[in-house]
Amino acid sequence: MSLLEGKKALIFGIANHRSIGWAIAQSLASQGAQLAFTYQDRMEKYVKELAAKIPGTVTFPCDVQYDDQIDEAFAKTAEVFNGELDILVHSVAFAPASELENPFVQTTRAGFHTALDISAYSLIALARRAAPMMQARGGGSIVSLTYLASERVMPKYNVMAVAKAALECSTRYLAYELGEHNIRVNAISAGPLNTLAARGISGFTGFRNQAAQVAPLRRNIEQSEVGDTALFLCSDLARGITGEVLFVDAGYNIMGA
């Protein structure tokens, strides 16, 4: 029997075929999960094209900055999944380009608010709405994506690093509060991947090359490795794991430089 046979998953944050969210979707689908994707209006075409590659996948518009759109997305999810949900994937992050280009000390109030709202608060907003649907299934799994810059200085990651630190802290508090309902909340800290978001960070290519040289496995990771880790966290194989940040970075995080 497949690991996720009969499970229902809602994925936020797919932008194109390079997205980590898409890699996770493929891994979940390979083990029998029924999927739903959300998309921002500007990404509708790309997300729907990807959804068509996995039979039975449905899509809804949603910008996580707006509570009414989140409410509508969950209402549609409840309609499609009969009020039940097993898996929530949060692969959402954004900061204005200027906040990643200018020195961190020049971070603006508006830029800080935008980065923290979209990249961190949205996890809380989504978890709050997912929880009742997961309780109807006797529990569930929530997975988000983070990065080592939450712990160490990565030049030009700037306010996004602060947002990832907030996301990881939120993961622990959500895990504590939702644990009594058998809802597990974890984060995956992925190594540098060539995604749309990563391309907006100055010096990304150089850092990716350096990571491959320093990491114990002497290589960079692939999107599919993050997808399969999410599959593990969303399955009963990880039923005793919650509140954790699991590194998938070829071991880079254990090195001193």
Automatic annotation (TrEMBL):
Record keywords, A-Z: Fatty acid biosynthesis, Fatty acid metabolism, Lipid biosynthesis, Lipid metabolism, NAD, Oxidoreductase
Pathway: Lipid metabolism; fatty acid biosynthesis
Binding site for NAD(+): 13, 19-20, 40, 63-64, 92, 164
EC number: 1.3.1.9
BP GO terms, sorted: fatty acid biosynthetic process
Pfam families in the cross-refs: adh_short_C2
Annotated positions binding substrate: 95
Domain of life: Bacteria
SUPFAM superfamilies: NAD(P)-binding Rossmann-fold domains (SSF51735)
Active site, UniProt feature: 147, 157
UniProt cross-references to InterPro entries, sorted A to Z: Enoyl-ACP_Rdtase_NADH, NAD(P)-bd_dom_sf, SDR_fam
Known catalytic reactions: a 2,3-saturated acyl-[ACP] + NAD(+) = a (2E)-enoyl-[ACP] + NADH + H(+)
GO molecular function, one term: enoyl-[acyl-carrier-protein] reductase (NADH) activity
Annotated family: Belongs to the short-chain dehydrogenases/reductases (SDR) family. FabI subfamily.
Name by which UniProt lists this protein: Enoyl-[acyl-carrier-protein] reductase [NADH]
Species: Thermosporothrix hazakensis
